[in-house]
Write a structure and sequence with these properties.
Blueprint (H helix, E strand, L loop, with lengths): L5 E6 L2 E6 L8 H15 L6 E6 L4 E3 L4 H5 L13 H13 L5 E5 L2 E3 L1 H7 L3 E5 L5 E2 L2 H4 L5 H10 L2 H8 L7 H7 L4 E3 L1 H15 L6 H12 L11 H6 L7
Parallel strand pairs: 2-3, 3-5, 4-6, 5-7, 6-8, 7-9
Antiparallel strand pairs: 1-2
């Protein structure tokens, strides 16, 4: 399946979703197209892994579609704004518990919702020489939703978490790797190939898809094993139960 905003390819056991929407900003149309592509990936069987990346030289994803959020009537191509919050959070919860290994090949900036999407993957490989990871909400005077905070806390050390969400720190690939929430860095020419090699290496883990998904649910879902409280997947999928 390929659409206006992304294309899906397969190389052996590795599926590759490439975002082709420029800055790849998140709105309801983007969410629903990605959901449809994930349906196709999930309908496969046997060993598999999923890689996501972007065709844009500068952006993996530049976060929310702010123009659409500010004035959805003037940007109908973004879809129904009233359902975006729940559908986006649900999609993030789906990615974090996806029934195969997932690798984010971060070729450029990943801000806000783009950083969330990258953190929902199992493995992150980032371009070494260009691009930043950032949660800019504090700079923008916006509250970070509690499920998003939970996601960041589960994926980052406490110090990196604080600097990210409270101080709006911008992380380069080498900095994020040193902080532990990027697993590898690469030059841009080798980034996708390195992610595909990693996917092929991990694909056998998804031979039993139910088992692979079940353990993710136990790590990140309701009554999460890692902290004996609700994890980010449960909170993202049930975001209406939480305030900020």
């Amino acid at each position: 399946m390929s659409g206006e905003l992304m294309k899906l390819e397969r190389d052996g056991d590795v599926f590759v979703i490439t975002f082709v929407g420029g800055e790849n900003r998140w709105n309801t149309t983007f969410v629903r197209e990605l959901s449809g592509v994930l349906d196709e990936v999930e309908d496969s069987s046997g060993p598999a892994a999923l890689v996501t990346t972007s065709s844009d030289e500068k952006f993996y994803s530049n976060g929310l579609d702010i123009d659409w959020v500010s004035d959805p009537a003037s940007h109908p191509e973004g879809g129904d704004s009233k359902v975006f919050g729940g559908e986006f959070m649900g999609l993030m919860g789906r990615i974090i518990t996806f029934p195969m290994p997932t690798i984010s090949a971060i070729n450029g900036h990943a801000f806000g919702a783009g950083l969330m999407a990258a953190l929902c993957h199992d493995v992150r490989i980032m371009r070494a020489d260009r691009g930043f990871l950032c949660a800019p909400e504090m700079q923008l005077g916006m509250a970070i939703p509690t499920p998003e905070l939970a996601l960041f806390r589960h994926k980052m050390s406490m110090s990196a978490f604080h600097e990210t969400v409270q101080l709006a720190k911008r992380w380069s690939g080498p900095m994020a790797m040193e902080a532990g929430f990027i697993q590898d860095i690469s030059d841009i020419e080798s980034l996708l190939d390195k992610a595909k090699v990693k996917g092929a290496e991990l694909a056998q883990l998804a031979t039993n898809r139910d088992n692979f998904r079940d353990q993710k649910e136990r790590l990140y879902g309701e009554n999460a094993a890692i902290n004996e409280a609700h994890g980010p997947a449960y909170m993202l999928k049930n975001a209406d139960k939480y305030g900020h």
